[in-house]
């Protein structure tokens, strides 16, 4: 396919491998070794990639794979997960990303996948393609020297100090129980575990290799750093199935005596501040999106998730990129939805990017209404929409891709 003079958009071939590698390394500023490339090829089949080529030179790349995503109501939906998006700095802003995305989304539509997801490098690019940020993450730092737990905080114990290599099966099993409950978490393929467990030195940011705390219903993987001559711990991944596992692991992390601060990523309603006598000790140092989401098929996506309350609403959805928009009647009874195109007047008008942001329950409808990106016929419909789309468990990205 040639949309831009001199540039062809097509599937990657084996002959493109070296060009894709150099382009990806240049785009993201990291070199990859053979073991990493081998695992990446198992994670994302290189022959499923879309490339932009000028002659035989690769100047653009998008890779993708089908993922199983947990959505509200402890349900799962197949989604296209996109990654490795890059355009050569010599060829930027000529429409190559748009051309590759047009082809990639045509393929996703043909596969019948109701959602597309990815992690975005920048916030200003993807709204025009119908994506909205759908998971929120908070970077926090806790000065653990002053952390005292309230008398109400459970002290269930059960945490073991272990070597990661000895407990990989248990870590995978706990992750899998956690991801079934958690909107935004994906089934994790073996090659993704391989990347985590390999723990290459170049991704440690000057920290130690991974240390592991294991509880029957949770785990924490973390590194030690030196910061201004003080010892700091960075929690790389913590997954807890139960509140007891959460309290037990945090008690252990806050019990690392020689450590000044513990850094971690928390979702909005993580209970950690409420376990402590001084909730301010959990200091938010950054707040950002963890996943972007686009509905490829509005009725299929909206009927795939569960809802917190009953709902009767007509949504007019605009799609600036594909033809997935339209007016849809959404009816929810006992958590189960029906959704179909309708001729009825809309109660709510919104962009498909806004619906993407609301889909996992992390972003409330009222904020978009206040920003004039969602128009509601009346405040009752707006409140009902927000309540129904809300979730009991915060959305969290399962594994970065
Ligand atoms: C981001 C990147 C892929 C854009 O590629 P590109 O070929 O220059 O993009 P296009 O020319 O097709 O632009 C597509 C649209 O996005 C907009 N856009 C592109 N980059 C943008 C940016 N950084 N910020 C805001 N808008 C941007 C363009 O203005 C254009 O808008 P329009 O089609 O509505 O007029 C490229 O700059 C890149 O590889 N960056 C480094 C790696 C990276 O960040 N990858 C993304 C990982 S998620």
List the helices and strands and how they pair.
Blueprint: E1 8-11, H1 17-28, H2 34-43, E2 50-54, E3 57-71, E4 75-87, H3 96-111, E5 115-118, E6 132-143, E7 160-162, H4 168-181, H5 190-198, E8 211-215, E9 218-227, E10 230-240, H6 243-253, E11 259-266, H7 272-275, E12 282-295, H8 298-304, E13 311-318, E14 326-333, E15 336-341, E16 348-351, H9 352-359, H10 365-370, E17 374-376, H11 379-389
Parallel strand pairs: 4-5, 10-11, 13-16
Antiparallel strand pairs: 1-2, 2-3, 3-4, 5-12, 6-11, 6-12, 7-8, 8-9, 9-10, 13-14, 14-15, 16-17
Helix pairs in contact: 2-5
The chain binds coenzyme A.
Q: How would you summarize this macromolecular structure in one to three sentences?
A:
This protein has 401 residues and is of the alpha+beta class. It is built from 11 helices and 17 strands.
Tell me about this structure.
The chain is an alpha+beta fold and 401 residues long. The chain folds into 3 domains: 8-118, Aminopeptidase (3-Layer(aba) Sandwich); 137-287, 3-Layer(aba) Sandwich (Aminopeptidase), CATH 3.40.630.30; 298-387, SCP2 sterol-binding domain (Nonspecific Lipid-transfer Protein, Chain A), CATH 3.30.1050. It has helices spanning 17-28, 34-43, 96-111, 168-181, 190-198, 243-253, 272-275, 298-304, 352-359, 365-370, 379-389, and strands at residues 8-11, 50-54, 57-71, 75-87, 115-118, 132-143, 160-162, 211-215, 218-227, 230-240, 259-266, 282-295, 311-318, 326-333, 336-341, 348-351, 374-376. It has a 12-stranded mixed β-sheet, sandwiched between helices. The chain has a 5-stranded mixed β-sheet with strand order 15-14-13-16-17. The radius of gyration is 22 Å and the shape is globular. The two termini are 27 Å apart. Coenzyme A binds at residues 27, 85-87, 92-98, 120-122, 124-125, 128.
């Amino acid at each position: 396919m040639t949309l831009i003079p001199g540039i062809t958009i097509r599937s990657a071939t084996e002959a493109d491998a070296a060009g894709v590698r150099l382009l990806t390394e240049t785009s993201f500023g990291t070199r990859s070794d053979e073991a990493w490339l081998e695992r990446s090829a198992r994670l994302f089949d290189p022959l499923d990639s879309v490339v932009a080529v000028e002659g035989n030179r690769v100047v653009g790349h998008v890779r993708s794979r089908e993922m199983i995503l947990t959505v509200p109501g402890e349900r799962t939906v197949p989604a296209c997960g996109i990654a490795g998006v890059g355009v050569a700095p010599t060829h930027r802003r000529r429409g190559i990303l748009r051309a590759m995305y047009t082809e990639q989304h045509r393929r996703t539509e043909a596969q019948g996948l109701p959602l597309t997801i990815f992690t975005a490098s920048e916030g200003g690019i993807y709204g025009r393609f119908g994506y909205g940020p759908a998971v929120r993450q908070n970077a926090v730092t806790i000065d653990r020297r002053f952390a005292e737990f309230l008398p109400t905080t459970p002290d269930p114990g059960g945490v073991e100090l272990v070597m990661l290599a000895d407990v990989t099966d248990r870590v995978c099993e706990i992750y899998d129980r956690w991801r079934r409950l958690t909107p935004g978490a994906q089934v994790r393929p073996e090659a993704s575990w391989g990347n985590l467990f390999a723990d290459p030195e170049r991704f440690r940011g000057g920290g130690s290799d991974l240390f592991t705390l294991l509880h029957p219903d949770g785990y924490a993987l973390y590194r030690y750093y030196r910061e201004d001559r003080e010892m700091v711990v960075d929690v790389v991944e913590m997954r807890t199935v139960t509140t007891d596992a959460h309290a037990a692991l945090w008690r252990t992390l806050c019990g690392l005596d020689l450590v000044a601060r513990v850094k971690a990523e928390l979702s909005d309603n993580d209970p950690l501040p409420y376990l402590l006598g001084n909730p301010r000790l959990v200091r938010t140092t950054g707040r950002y999106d963890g996943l972007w989401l686009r509905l490829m098929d509005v009725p299929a996506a909206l009927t795939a998730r569960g809802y917190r309350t009953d709902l009767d609403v007509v949504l007019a959805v605009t799609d600036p990129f594909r033809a997935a928009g339209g007016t849809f009647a959404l009816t929810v009874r006992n958590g189960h939805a029906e959704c179909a195109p309708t001729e009825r007047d809309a109660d709510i008008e919104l962009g498909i990017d806004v619906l993407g942001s609301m889909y996992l329950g992390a972003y409330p409808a009222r904020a978009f209404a206040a920003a004039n990106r969602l128009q509601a016929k009346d405040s009752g419909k707006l409140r009902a929409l927000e309540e129904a789309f809300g979730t009991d468990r915060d959305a969290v990205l399962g594994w970065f891709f």
